[in-house]
Amino acid sequence: MAQHPLSKWFRNIWHWRTIAQIIFLAMVITCSILAWNTLARNMRSSGLAISFDFLADPASFDIADTPFPYKASDSYTKALQVGLLNSLKVIAVSILSATAIGITVGVARLSNNWLVKHLSQVYVEILRNTPLLLQLFFWYSAIFLSLPATGDRLGFAILAKDGITFPALKMTLSSEFCALVMGLTMFASAFIAEIVRGGILAVPKGQTEAAKALGLSNFQTLQKIVLPQALRVIIPSLTSQYVNIAKNSSLAIAIGYTDIYRIASTTINQTGRPVNVILIIMAVYLTISLSISLGMNLLNRQFQIVER
């Protein structure tokens, strides 16, 4: 007896999964609309409105670190753009430096040298188990603010209370920027070191033994055999650390660095539009985090084993 087409359709588990996903998506959209309507109604009852017209008004405050010309008479939009670029600068530098240090420390954790191995372990344990905010205060208050005002020359740089100056490049990095980058870098590198160590240990020992049998040095084995395979394990975990760096950069407000969060806080105090500005901040950090995740996911695909 032939099975009825409708009965066959109901027996297909993929159809029910699709229906469940559609229902869940409809519930999310409905809840989002209800939440937005409730927010709009509450703001109207308070005499406020979800409007961003205030962004065109003069900001009326100065900004210390400005990647492009800015003055107090410029709009809030331009002030937020300054903060966004400052945040992106911190995030980019911290990610690159944390990755370099993390890989170095992670490899050192597996060294046959007793001193190198245990020094790297102490580095990881201290930084990983100390609050990031405390580390930021340490770098800013105990290190940079304790430097002399005139500055001491160290190689091609001049260290002073106001920051680090590179005469050859005609560039000065503020003490707030340097302290924030150092704190984020050292904190994240401790976690990245453990990720790298775990990824290397995940590579079968037979791969290393085969490389030694071919006469490859330890550095060549690490560079050409171990790390390319370990990246398949490292990259997914590395993504979360990069996103954490982006989100933790908002702690810049604790040491006075003018990132987007601090400028947004000043904007809230002056305009009295907390909801509007918070929506902007959420959108900015969400975009940054999703961009990092997208980039790392694309990179991860390049290192995955292609099944045939």
From TrEMBL:
Q: What is the lineage of its organism?
A: Bacteria, Bacillati, Cyanobacteriota, Cyanophyceae, Pseudanabaenales
One GO BP annotation is: amino acid transport
Q: What PROSITE patterns does this protein's entry cite?
A: ABC_TM1
Sorted keywords for this record are: Amino-acid transport, Cell membrane, Membrane, Transmembrane, Transmembrane helix, Transport
Record Pfam families: BPD_transp_1
- Span of the secretion signal? none
This protein is called ABC transporter permease subunit
Q: Which NCBIfam families match?
A: HEQRo_perm_3TM (TIGR01726)
Q: Which GO-annotated molecular functions does the record name?
A: transmembrane transporter activity
Q: Where in the cell is it found?
A: Cell membrane
GO cellular-component term (any): ATP-binding cassette (ABC) transporter complex
Q: In what way does this protein cross or attach to the membrane?
A: Multi-pass membrane protein
Natural source organism: Pseudanabaena cinerea FACHB-1277
Q: Which family does it belong to?
A: Belongs to the binding-protein-dependent transport system permease family. HisMQ subfamily.
